[in-house]
Amino acid sequence: MTDKVAPAERQNFPAQSKNQSVKLKKELGLFDGVAIIVGVIVGAGIFVSPKGVLIEGGSIGLALIIWVFSGLLSLMGALCYAELGTMIPKSGGDYAYISDAFGPLPAFLYLWVALFILVPTGNAITALTFATYILQSLWPGCVPSYVAVRLLAVVVTCLLTAINCYNVKWVTRVQDLFMGTKIFALLIIMGAGLWYMFANGAHNLDKPMESTTTDPGHIALAVYSGLFSYSGWNYLNFVTEELKDPYRNLPKAICISLPLITIIYVLANVAYFVVLTKDEILSSNAVAVTFGDKLLGPMAWIMPVFVACSTFGALNGAIFTSSRLFFVGARNGHLPNAIALINIKNLTPIPSLIFLCIITLSLLITEDVYKLINYVSFVEALFTTLSVSGLLWLRYKRPDLHRPIKVSFILPIVFLLICIFLVFLPCYGSPLEVGIGLMIIISGIPVYWIFIYWENKPQWLISASRNVNTSCAKLFMCVPEEKDD
């Protein structure tokens, strides 16, 4: 796949100014980096499903401990990724790190799973959550219809894709705005919980460790539930090439975001536990909405709105960052070259964004999209383990590689051991989901051998790839990225 855009096609595009090259620009500052991490992590999880930790942990005290532990574990992983991201300053996150450490096949398998499971499934679930809660806020007491939820999810996915195609600055403004909105919502929850505690006491916390589980399997599943609400801490690494001064801003954004999110998550859960009984939390489908109904009276409608705003910002950040993963994969020849094209006017990877949008929309119209979540946690943990293993392997294999940030050797070792535990535990508890996840990964091997490794491809396949590439270039006014001299 060497023919990206024929010279004749390039001549049909408007001439660029001498000082403007066609490539992704470094437009993300420190605040934008913080907004991306906070915006992607703080989705619907903290508003909708804190009960998952409580169900598996058994007690309020252990649930709070797990929320703190999950935050510290996420910070530990993010610091390891800060070393990876400054040592390998390429966009693409895990894909780039696995490729440098272990070669193209493992990197392609990560890209393969991310393409069809990890990224579009997460985006589809976020879009559906947004649609459900915005409709609930418009028509309180009514259960939104299947068709209405799907239709609104399709609309918001297309809208945010269009914004991402048009201008990176618009994307960052949306991200900054909705980061502020969701932080404000959590501050309302914390403030209302504090007021309730002073007015009525904290009787629900009198016996915090009562009913604590001692089963390691349930504790591990509780940690999984906690980590799910922190997922997205590595998304800024997907856009390293668009981050201003990444050696400084990547680790700073991580060190600001993860402690902030951990503190907010723990205090929000304390507020939930102060106001709601354990039974009320376990019977609720959306803890924040139940909290609002009990405490906010006529203003309870704001909670569904805040949940919707939170998921809107999370979806915007996920579309922006994950589209760069597929862009980098195509740039390396692991996806059709058309996906690595950049619009000459807006300097955005429009084909990659539209490609991601199409896959997400295909999941939105299926009824089984939620079932894919069962395979996401295991597969994601597996490739995170591989990335951290790559950090340790590169320290041994390439000790002289420039490392602007070098975390203590203990940090990746501890994080790796925990990841290994989280990878192997489901093999015992959920063998069917693990087996299906592994089959999805393995199914990428023949695809790799046929479309990438095989050098003597038939002429019809080469011609088809070239025609698709040229058509995309003309349709979206795109050209390949220009390399620095």
Automatic annotation (TrEMBL):
Q: Which residues cross the membrane?
A: 28-48, 60-82, 109-135, 147-165, 177-198, 218-238, 250-275, 301-327, 347-366, 372-395, 407-428, 434-454
Question: Any idea which UniProt keywords this protein has?
Answer: Cell membrane, Membrane, Transmembrane, Transmembrane helix, Transport
Lipoprotein among keywords: no
Keyword Cytoplasm on entry: no
Q: How does it sit in the membrane?
A: Multi-pass membrane protein
UniProt-annotated location(s): Cell membrane
**What Gene3D superfamilies would the database entry show?**
Amino acid/polyamine transporter I (1.20.1740.10)
Molecular function in Gene Ontology: L-amino acid transmembrane transporter activity
- Predominantly, its location class is membrane
Alphabetized InterPro entries for the sequence? AA/rel_permease1, AminoAcid_Transporter
A GO-annotated cellular component: plasma membrane
What family, per the record? Belongs to the amino acid-polyamine-organocation (APC) superfamily. L-type amino acid transporter (LAT) (TC 2.A.3.8) family.
- UniProt-recorded name of the protein: Large neutral amino acids transporter small subunit 2
> Which organism encodes this protein?
Microctonus hyperodae (Parasitoid wasp)
